[in-house]
Design goal:
Elements: H1 2-28, E1 34-40, H2 44-53, E2 57-61, E3 68-74, H3 77-86, H4 96-105, H5 110-119
Antiparallel strand pairs: 1-3, 2-3
C-alpha cells in the first residue's frame, strides 16, 4: 500500500510541475499576461520553485480554502499591480467590468468572457 501512495504522490507532483511549466511558457511567450491554476496546498514550495526555475514570478493565494491554493503566474511587475487591484477582498460584489479585465488579463477570448458574464447575469444577449 505504501508504494502505491508514493507512486500517486510522484504522479501528482509531476502533473503539477508540468502544469506550472505550461502556464509559465504561455506567460513568457506573451500568449497571456498572467496564468492561474489551483493546486493542493502541500505543494506550495514545489510550485514556487518550478515557476522561478521557468523564469516567471508567482503570487500564491491560500486564503479561500484550508486545503487548496491558487498560483497566479506572471512576468511583469505591472501585472502584479493589476492583480492586486482586481483581486482585493473589499466585500463588495465584483463589477462586470472587473470580470472582463480579469478575463483579458488571463487570456480569455471576448466570446468566453461574454458567455461568462451572461451566465452570471451581468449582461443579457451579449451576442446580438
Amino acid at each position: 500500500m505504501q508504494k502505491s501512495q508514493s507512486e500517486g504522490e510522484a504522479f501528482q507532483k509531476g502533473y503539477l510541475v508540468g502544469k506550472a511549466e505550461v502556464y509559465c511558457e504561455q506567460v513568457r511567450t506573451g500568449a497571456k499576461l498572467a496564468g492561474a491554476f489551483g493546486f493542493d496546498r502541500r505543494y506550495v514550495g514545489l510550485v514556487r520553485r518550478t515557476v522561478r526555475t521557468e523564469g516567471c514570478k508567482v503570487v500564491i493565494d491560500q486564503a479561500y480554502s484550508p486545503d487548496r491554493a491558487t498560483a497566479y503566474v506572471y512576468k511583469y511587475a505591472f501585472v502584479k499591480k493589476l492583480m492586486k487591484t482586481f483581486f482585493s477582498r473589499s466585500g463588495k460584489p465584483v463589477a462586470g467590468s472587473a470580470i472582463w479585465v480579469s478575463g483579458k488579463l488571463f487570456g480569455y477570448s471576448d466570446f468566453e468572457i461574454a458567455r461568462y458574464l451572461e451566465e452570471r447575469g451581468y449582461v443579457s444577449n451579449p451576442f446580438k
